[in-house]
Amino acid sequence: MRSSVQNLVIFVGAMQSARRIPFENPKVKNRDDQTVLRYDEPVATMLPVQEPKLVTTTVRDYDLSEVSKLLYSDYIGITMIAFLPGYMTFTQPLFIQSPMGLKSLYGDASSP
Fold first, then answer.
1. pTM exceeding the 0.90 threshold for the entire prediction
2. Which contacts (CB < 8 Å, 24+ apart) does range 83-87 have?
3. E strand or H helix at 30, and its extent?
4. pLDDT at 96
5. FRET label pair with 49: which of 1, 4, 37, 78, CA 20 to 30 Å apart?
6. What is the DSSP string of the chain?
7. pLDDT-based confidence at 55, cuts 50/70/90?
8. Which one Pfam family would you cite for this protein (predicted)?
């Protein structure tokens, strides 16, 4: 019960703060940061012992790939939200899931 109240408070707070956020900030593509970035790609835990793979990319390409991953996960959630009440006529997840999408979008956007 406590987490559902917390999610509802986050939803209402996000709606109120959305009015005050300047959405005119430059986008990732406009920054065009070509600084070289090297990092170790995480290894899947289900696979046998593997070495982490060293990835060399630019900051812009890394940011775009991370945004793409986040949008993909949000699209999966939206698909489930549309499927359950539309096909299964089960409406409770729709009500519960609606603030969670905004929570994930605003939470991921604010992380460094």
1. no
2. none
3. helix 28-31
4. 67
5. 37
6. -HHHHHHHHHHHHHHHHHTTS-TTSPPHHHH----EEEEEEPPPTTSSS-PPEEEEEEHHHHHHHHHHHHHHHHHHHHHHHHHHHHHS---HHHHHHHHHHHHHHHHHHH--
7. very high
8. Pho88
CB 11 within 8 A of CB 99: yes
**What's the token pair of residue 68?**
């793409």
Q: Quick one: DSSP state of residue 12?
A: H
Tokens matching residue 30: 């406009």
Total residues found in the chain within this entry = 112
CA 36 – CA 53 distance, rounded (Å): 16
Furthest-apart CA atoms within the chain: distance in Å: 50
Contact status, residue 14 vs residue 106, Cβ threshold 8 Å: yes
The CB density around residue 84, as the number of other CB atoms within 10 Å, is 16
Could you tell me the two tokens for 71?
A: 């949008």
Structure confidence by residue, pLDDT tens digits, 21-54: 665 555 666 778 889 999 998 887 777 777 888 9
